[in-house]
Amino acid sequence: MLISVQALRGFAAWIVVGVHFMQLFFDFEAHNALEYLVADKGGIGVDIFFVISGFVIFLATADKPLTPWRFMLMRVARIVPAYWFYTLLMVLLVASMPSMFPYEHLEPSYVLMSLLFIAAPSEPGVEVYPLLGVGWTLNFEMLFYGLFSFALLVRESYRLWVVATLLYLVCYIGPVLGLASGFYSNGIVLEFLMGIVIGMLYRRGLCRARPWLPLLGIAAASIAVYHGADIPRALEWGVPSAIVVISCVTLEPYFQGSRFLKWLGDCSYSVYLIHVPVLAVGQFVAERLGINPYAMLLVCIVVTAVGAWGSYQWLEKRTYPALKRWFGVEERASLSRQKY
Questions:
Q1: pLDDT at 157 exceeding the cut of 80
Q2: CA pair distance 104, 214, nearest whole angstrom
């Protein structure tokens, strides 16, 4: 894994933490320029994740004789254990402290659909969110993985077009025909394609330039996001995110050797999952005891960072190889390498 991508992944995760702090503690009501910036622009962390996902998945499958089934098993082994753990943690929190989560409910069908990455209303007629709120992005991720698995049946150079066609059919034609949820009719899915394009450029050795050019790209993307525009999200935030990702990839030689940045990336998935219950509990305690929100934020940051490190070490690192062995993925992969 490129250290630059790891660093960017960690940065994106902590931006999302800031957004949810503003949501839970201030209901997005900003009191200064920094709060406004986080509340109004911090959602771009998700867009960066999606671009990175397209980039990483394309590179991770290049030149590998993966079948669609084996690819999906590997994705399930990587994504599902931690997500299920924190979703079930939310079940326990909501069941034991319902006053802390007045808008959540625990109907078995809703919990099951949350666990299975199926888009469903959190309440009748209300926005589509799983029990663990950030799971809505994983619904898109799992859709992307499923569609990308079919692209493994064709040559590497055609995979972008296969995924693009399938995304169009599922996300835009499917809802019209009643074959897919309208939840997926979101231009944000185009950001996966942007990541694949960056992966193709990287594979061809085209992500090289003098440092001033990628730095200029990051500055231009930041200015574009700050000023914003009344255009679809894939253009307003997706394109700048893609520019930031390709710029960081180009700057990879300057990131190499940083153990701290690698650690940020390693723990980013657990940070993304664990911060929701941590902030929810922190907001509840701060409100009841009259604690300053920013004092509680510091506590939540420490708890999230320590908890994410433990989650990565004891949950992610242990379950992923264990499940791959259980699924028989590693053994089959080695046999495939011998065959080819």
A1: yes
A2: 44
Contact residues for 150 (Cβ-Cβ < 8 A; gap 6+): 68, 162, 166
Contacts 24+ apart (CB under 8 A), 92-98: 93/277, 93/280, 93/281, 94/131, 97/284
- Domain span holding position 167: 3-339
The proportion of the chain whose per-residue pLDDT surpasses 90, expressed as a percent, equals 79
**31 vs 45: CA distance, rounded Å:** 21
Q: What is the tally of structural domains in the chain?
A: 1
Length of the chain: 340
- Say how far apart CA 259 and CA 241 lie, in whole Å: 24
CA distance 132 to 83: 8
As a whole number, mean pLDDT of residues 58-63 equals 93
pLDDT at 141 over 80: yes
- Cβ 175 vs Cβ 128: under 8 Å: no
Question: For position 175, what pLDDT does the model report?
Answer: 84
Contacts of 32 (CB under 8 A, 6+ apart): none
Q: What is the CA radius of gyration of the chain?
A: 20
Strand, coil or helix: 128: strand
**Rounded to an integer, what distance in angstroms lies between the CA atom of residue 157 and that of residue 161?**
9
CA 266/CA 279 separation, integer angstroms:
21
What are 25's two structure tokens?
């503690």
Question: pTM (2 decimals)?
Answer: 0.92
Return the closest-CA partner of residue 122 out of 155, 144, 142, 94: 94
The H-assigned helical ranges of the chain are: 3-26, 33-41, 44-61, 68-96, 108-115, 135-151, 159-168, 174-176, 190-203, 212-227, 233, 239-250, 259-266, 268-289, 293-311, 317-327, 329-339
Which residues, other chains included, contact 245 with Cβ-Cβ below 8 Å and sequence gap of 6+?
Answer: 5, 8, 48, 51, 52, 55, 194, 195, 198
User: 123 — alpha (psi -120 to 50), left (phi > 0) or beta?
Assistant: beta
Q: CA-to-CA distance for 298 and 304, rounded, in angstroms?
A: 10
C-beta of residue 292 within 8 angstroms of C-beta of residue 275: no
